[in-house]
Design a protein that fits this description.
The structure holds two protein chains of two kinds. By secondary structure, chain A is of the alpha/beta class. Chain A has four domains: 150 residues, P-loop containing nucleotide triphosphate hydrolases (Rossmann fold), CATH 3.40.50.300; 70 residues, no CATH class; 172 residues, P-loop containing nucleotide triphosphate hydrolases (Rossmann fold, 3-Layer(aba) Sandwich); 69 residues, no CATH class. Chain A has 19 helices and 22 strands. In chain A, strand 18, helix 17 and strand 19 form a beta-alpha-beta unit. In chain A, 45% of the residues are buried. The relative contact order of chain B is 0.20. Chain B contains 14 helices and four strands. The N terminus and C terminus of chain B are likely disordered. Chain B has one domain: ABC transporter involved in vitamin B12 uptake, BtuC. In chain B, strand 2 and strand 3 form a beta hairpin. Classes of the chains: A alpha/beta, B mainly alpha. At the A-B interface, helix 11, helix 12 and helix 13 of A face helix 8 and helix 9 of B.
């Protein structure tokens, strides 16, 4: 590898990075750089290309073209995870990568345990001593002998950080590190980031939370639709500016703004003071017949937890729900029988039976109809499956096809079909189009509109801002588990939702 | 719409024929009525146990306690009939209820306390064996009476041994429940994706409780049949049979990770296991070698069912 003089104090320099997945360009000639010892935030909407860029830097995926220089070393096209680690690039993963059942010290020194010279056995005492030294240096609330299973998520993140520091990390990449932390834990993390910075370690930080980005960063890189929009210096950083750059003034502006016209009519769902400790607090709203009520907010703002509680998948601590005018204590079974449907957030984990046929998948929430006395009417089951497949245009239209072998878009159609073959009055929809192609997306939008036109009420949670603005008749934005703002009777844009989700208050119609 | 399982079963049947041919060439005694009757006994026992054990297996669990439950059931039915003087029919019914309760208890620990089924039923296998030792006072007890009880297994109807009818009845019922009832759909759904099943209105805990209860019940039926057939009961009577049952299930295409399975396949699996063991006996291959063969057959069956040994068409039919 050749050393390169870049003159500046750049630790990481990417030039013209391009990456596409099956013909779809996700990064388009992006320039990106991180200085030595700075805290650098990477922001952008979902699908802007942040994760892909990080994956390329950490070697989790390859780039199609573009140059990368790290610490004066040209990074070759073939750049794997272990190469990145050897260079000093450390990642604190969102889904923590520690091994349960092992101690803090064992995790920190995994794969690089100190050995006794003669026997080549692990020198446990030395390992624990070294771990203690590290812990003491940063004054973390940890013991080397703590089991990973017995410590909190925040503490686990600390272990991840120590693990990186025990190597020779010169950059620490944190992907949404605060999404599962409490307020005090977040403050502690901020202190740690400052500490890392004072030691000359760069921190690359991905977050949707504007106030964090604002409080922490020396520079901010904004991506939009796979392109670099702007790099902001410290004095230029403000939440309003970042949001403006993230949303941009897209050509298809018409498509992403939407005139809200709230529907009156009968109240189908009445929620008062609903509280689930640590998830959401004191939420009250009405949902009318045929209305699409959008729920906006950042990841972790309590949206998913709210719809799960309303559906009966999780319990709640306080508050009342009235459904069709009657007192309602939900359970999944009651909800289904009462005409309520639910599209969960994660299709593969929560939505589909991958090893079962399309027919069986559509059948399972409809057992009350296809097997009213416990014995399945195969005729009825086949009839409903055929209807679901036709209604949603599932491809291939073969009822016996295993759902695990369908494309993401068709899997999601099957999940929707499960409910569309029933008589619904209300459906909770959480992130309906994550990771599916545009064609399937539009078809799913059509179905949501058709449901609403038929008088079915829809509670829609989405992080896809154009989706939320286009489909909703009214939008409620949650922030940190609480009601923050409602949008009705105004021209709604993604920008307005994002500003509210980020805690910027303003008039409903400006 | 059930094209896939039928394909599995057909493929098994196709393997069965050459297996029989090979065995009859290797040993002239194989295709004699006496020998086939012998094979039928072990097929019946494995078949009866499989028709219940398939439920926990499809939910992604396992019931390893079924051999101990069967042995204990034999001892208990003898206790009821011959030491307590209860008539044979109520004795059998009570024994089956006890077996089901044992299964219910296993299911409770698996479903509610969330301990892996392997551990729970392994422990149950051990303590049930202990209870069997205590109740039988460690002895091998002969059952010579009552006559109707002995005839359950040793009698014939229309020329065929009675246990065949019992096995067929249980297997048909079990297959029907699995394929044509809401409960069967729920068992498959829980084995395929418990979270998705729950969000679609299935109660996975209830499904597990019932699955283990069924397995306990059929184990008791198996134990009663075995007692009636051998006319003796002891704590180690059905020792190790759980492995034969699991082999039959694996060969029959019941997925090792749940969500898939067929009783008909398991029956064909049971026949194959019984044939192979019988063949080894006929060829005078010493018993210590038998597990080597059956173990290898499990691996072969797994490879076959997961589509490794048949290249092209398999992957298509799985798609």
């Amino acid at each position: 590898m050749t050393k390169v003089e870049n003159g500046a104090d750049l630790l990481l320099e990417c030039r013209s990075i391009t990456k596409s997945y099956s013909g779809h360009v996700v990064l388009d000639a992006v320039d990106f750089s991180v200085r030595r010892g700075e805290v650098h935030a990477l922001v952008g909407e979902n699908g802007a290309g942040k994760s892909t860029l990080i994956k390329i830097v950490t070697g989790a995926t390859g780039r199609d073209s573009g140059e990368m220089v790290y610490d004066g070393t040209v990074v070759p096209m073939e750049h794997l995870r272990r190469d990145a680690e050897a260079l000093g690039i450390a990642v604190i993963y969102q889904e923590l990568s520690l091994i349960p059942g092992m101690t803090v010290a064992q995790n920190i020194f995994l794969g690089k345990e100190p050995l006794r010279p003669l026997t080549r056995l692990i020198d446990v005492r030395k390992m624990n001593d070294q771990a203690r030294e590290l812990i003491d240096r940063y004054n973390f609330p940890l013991k080397p002998t703590d089991l990973i299973d017995n410590i909190s998520i925040a503490q686990r993140q600390l272990v991840e950080i120590l693990k990186a520091l025990s190597g020779k990390a010169s950059i620490m990449i944190m992907d949404e590190p605060t999404s599962s932390l409490t307020k005090t834990e977040v403050e502690m993390l901020f202190k740690i980031i400052a500490l890392l910075k004072s030691e000359g370690i760069s921190v690359l930080y991905i977050s949707h939370r504007m106030e964090e980005v604002y409080a922490l960063s020396d520079r901010v890189t904004v991506l939009r639709d796979g392109k670099l929009v702007k790099v902001l210096d410290k004095e230029e950083i403000s939440p309003e500016e970042i949001i403006r750059l993230m949303i941009g003034h897209k050509l298809e502006e018409k498509a992403v703004q939407h005139e809200l016209t709230p529907k009156g009519g009968k109240v189908v769902l009445e929620v008062r003071g609903l509280t689930s400790v640590g998830k959401f607090e004191d939420l009250s709203f009405d949902l009318h017949e045929g209305e699409v009520l959008g729920i906006g907010g950042l990841v972790g703002s309590g949206r998913t937890e709210l719809v799960r509680a309303l559906y009966g998948a999780d319990s709640f601590d306080a508050g009342t729900i009235r459904y069709l005018g009657k007192e309602w204590v939900p359970s999944v079974r009651k909800s289904i029988e009462g005409g309520i449907g639910f599209i969960p957030e994660e299709r593969r984990l929560q939505g589909i039976l991958a090893t079962q046929s399309i027919t069986r998948n559509i059948g399972i929430p409809n057992l009350d109809l296809i097997a009213p006395r416990g014995i399945v009417s195969v005729k009825e089951e086949d009839r409903r499956a055929a209807r679901g497949i036709e209604l949603l245009n599932v491809k291939p239209p073969r009822p016996e096809q295993l759902v695990g072998n369908l494309s993401g878009g068709n899997q999601q159609k099957v999940v929707l079909a499960k409910w569309l073959v029933r008589d619904l009055k209300l459906i909770f929809i959480d992130e309906p189009t994550v990771g599916i192609d545009i064609g399937a997306k539009e078809e799913i939008y059509d179905h949501i509109r058709a449901l609403s036109a038929r008088g079915v009420s829809v509670l829609l949670v989405s992080s896809d801002l154009p989706e939320l603005t286009r489909l909703s008749d009214r939008v409620i934005v949650l922030r940190q588990g609480r009601f923050f703002q409602e949008f009705r009777e105004c021209v709604l844009t993604g920008e307005k939702i994002l500003r509210a989700a980020s805690g910027i208050r303003e008039g409903d119609d400006e | 719409m059930n094209k896939k399982p039928i394909a599995t079963e057909l493929r098994l049947a196709v393997v069965l024929v050459p297996l029989m041919a090979v065995l009859s060439v290797l040993s002239p005694r194989f295709l004699t009525l006496d020998n086939l009757t012998n094979v039928v006994w072990s097929v019946c026992l494995i078949g009866i146990l499989s028709s219940g054990a398939i439920y926990p297996r499809i939910t992604g669990g396992i019931d390893l306690s079924l051999g101990s439950t069967a042995a204990l059931s034999g001892i208990v039915v003898d206790l009821f009939m011959n030491r307590m003087g209860i008539p044979w029919i109520p004795s059998i019914l009570m024994t089956v209820v006890i077996g089901a309760l044992v299964g219910l208890f296993n299911g409770f620990i698996v479903a509610k306390i969330k301990i892996p089924a392997f551990v729970v039923t392994m422990a149950a296998k051990t303590y049930l064996y202990g209870i069997a030792l205590v109740v039988s006072q460690g002895a091998m007890l002969a059952i010579l009476e009552p006559r109707p009880f002995i005839l359950i297994s040793t009698g014939r109807f229309l020329g065929l041994p009675n246990p065949i009818y019992i096995m067929v009845a249980l297997a048909v019922t079990s297959q029907f429940v699995l394929r044509r009832t809401a409960f069967g759909r729920q068992v498959m759904a829980v084995g395929s994706n418990e979270v998705a099943a729950r969000l679609s209105g299935v109660d996975p805990d209830r499904v597990r409780l019932i699955s283990y209860t069924i397995s306990g019940g059929t184990s008791a039926v198996g134990g009663v049949i075995l007692a009636s057939l051998t006319q003796q009961v002891f704590a180690a009577a059905a020792s190790g049979i759980e492995l034969d049952v699991m082999t039959a299930l694996v060969i029959g295409g019941t997925s090792a990770v749940g969500g898939r399975g067929s009783v008909l396949g398991a029956l064909i699996g049971a026949i194959m296991v019984a044939f192979i063991i019988n063949g080894l006996n006929l060829m005078n291959i010493p018993a210590p070698f038998h597990p080597i063969v059956t173990g290898s057959v499990i691996i072969l069956a797994l490879l076959l069912n997961e589509g490794y040994l048949v290249p092209k068409r398999r992957t298509l039919s799985r798609a």
